[in-house]
Amino acid sequence: MNTRSKQKDKEVTQLERFIRETPVEVDLVNRTMSKYESIRNTKPSEKFRTRKNLRQRVMMITASAAMIFSLIIITGLISPTMAATMKEVPLLSSVFKFTRDLGLHAADEKGFSTKLNTSVTHEGFTLNVTEVVFDGTRVAIGIERHHKEGENSKESLSDQMSNIEFLLNGEPLNHTNFSGVFRQPSKDKNSVILEFSDLKNQGGSPFPKQFNLTLSTTITEISEPFKMDIPVSDIGNYVNLQPNISRKYKNNQFTIEQIILTPITTSITTRIALLDKSTSVDFREGINIEVYDEQGRELKLIHGNGRRETNKGNSDLIMDLRFHPFETLPKAITIKPYINLINDYPKGTYQEDENGDPIIQYIPELEITIPIKSQQ
After folding, report:
1. What is the third-level CATH fold of 239-375?
2. Any idea which fold 94-233 has?
3. Global confidence as pTM
């Protein structure tokens, strides 16, 4: 065997070792070839045919590795090391990754969420809490179901769940101390995300930094309730602004009381007060907001809740709205209030454009731009 053949065999042996040592990803070939080429970038280039044959051999080795990987999954022969590696495979990703919520994507991808495997089984039906995250503004819980063998419900998990209740450190959460439950769909009908917030911006008490959450829910056609304990910790890492800037429009005063920026949520608290209660010009129930950064990029609304403050002798409307996070900390935030135009008939329905979207009317008198650096 000549020296060149020995060198080629040595390189292929190195490739096989690299493939075995490289974590499994979607594109094994490209990753391994990149790694291989990085160690030989000081050597003269091979002829096209030699490189083509070498790549074919790499693909054969990679295919064999993928088959072995699949066999390991099927047979359940997974070592602790392999299990850790498998967590990085996109096909085995979290419930959060499959929502349209960019904040929950970040929670999964940046490691803010706590991965769990808390499950309860009744009558062959298993409910599994996969993960949880709390960023000081909202708690989000990923849940999956597993049916009895051979059973496949036409109902979604969200539709099957009812009587959802929470205990925080053993004390019940109710309408006086939390927002109520919001539901988000995930990758398929077998999973759902439950979310809720405290009412600290609306006269309630804030959630502690760490607490034990007990989830209780009933499932359609399952007699016994499902109860699971979920440890929750605040991820911290947020910017808290209290601008308290107001604008007036006709008989209404609009105030931005607080803005909280986290890697998962942009939370904005507004107050709308009626200046002269003797008049009927009251837009409080109808005012909504859009949120933009200094480059005009709009944030998508996730959900929110509002309450009238009655303990101070007035009826101010306090709104706590939660939007997608900013990709990076903006230099300024612009709040654009607007109202939906209402039809006279049928009374109370929204006016719509030719695409069926509600027609809105901005209120420039209430628009507020807040420089971030000056508020920190």
Report:
1. Immunoglobulin-like (2.60.40)
2. Immunoglobulin-like (2.60.40)
3. 0.72
